[in-house]
Amino acid sequence: MKAAYRRMLSLMQSKANSGPTQKRKETWFLYMLMCNDGSFYTGITKNLNRRIAQHNAGRASRYTRTRRPVLICYQETCAGRTDALVREIKIKSLPRKIKEQLAKQHTSPVPLKAWKTPAFVTHTQIGPAQAPGEAPDRKP
């Protein structure tokens, strides 16, 4: 894990373990997207459907703006923002093979061969329950 991630992770964990706060705990989502070029993007949000729509509209991040459309391939619920950020840092520091295994944990009605085709990528609507079965191999 990168040194910057380790420092950030230790600060967030110490903040989370410092005791109860006055703020109400909200549900946050950690998500991983498969971009059109085969790369992964990981992020957090409180409203997953809105955030995916923003990514596909080109208004969410610079990274996904040029790699549209994106498909959600992994998601999990976190107890709060700090927990979601800690988990996001851990997932971002994982090697690609492990990220592909995370994506495989989610079942998909769409087979891998169909998911790789350009027609599927350009005509598929993103829904909260859709997740590709596995990530396509990235071309060097």
Largest sheet: 3 strands, antiparallel
Q: From the helix content, strand content and strand pairing, which structural class follows?
A: alpha+beta
Low-confidence runs: 109-140
Shape estimate: globular
Determine the strand fraction and express it as a percent band.
15-25%
**Roughly how many Å is the radius of gyration?**
16 Å
How many distinct folded domains?
A: 1
Enter the CATH topology name.
Answer: GIY-YIG endonuclease
Q: What's the architecture, going by CATH?
A: 3-Layer(aba) Sandwich
Multimeric status of the protein: single chain
Q: Would you state the CATH class?
A: Alpha Beta
How are the secondary structure elements laid out?
Elements: H1 3-16, E1 28-34, E2 40-45, H2 48-57, H3 62-65, E3 71-78, H4 81-92, H5 96-104, H6 112-116, H7 118-123
Antiparallel strand pairs: 1-2, 1-3
Helix pairs in contact: 1-4
In short:
By secondary structure, this protein is α+β, with helices and mostly antiparallel strands. Helices cover 43% and strands 15% of the residues.
Structural commentary:
With 140 residues, the protein is an alpha+beta fold. The chain has one domain: 3-Layer(aba) Sandwich (GIY-YIG endonuclease), CATH 3.40.1440.10. The protein is 43% helix and 15% strand. It is built from seven helices and three strands; from the N terminus they run αββααβαααα. A three-stranded antiparallel sheet has the order 2-1-3, sandwiched between helices. Strand 1 (28-34) and strand 2 form a beta hairpin. Helix 1 runs antiparallel to helix 4 (81-92). The longest helix has 14 residues, at 3-16. The chain is globular. The chain starts with a helix and ends in a 17-residue tail after the last helix.
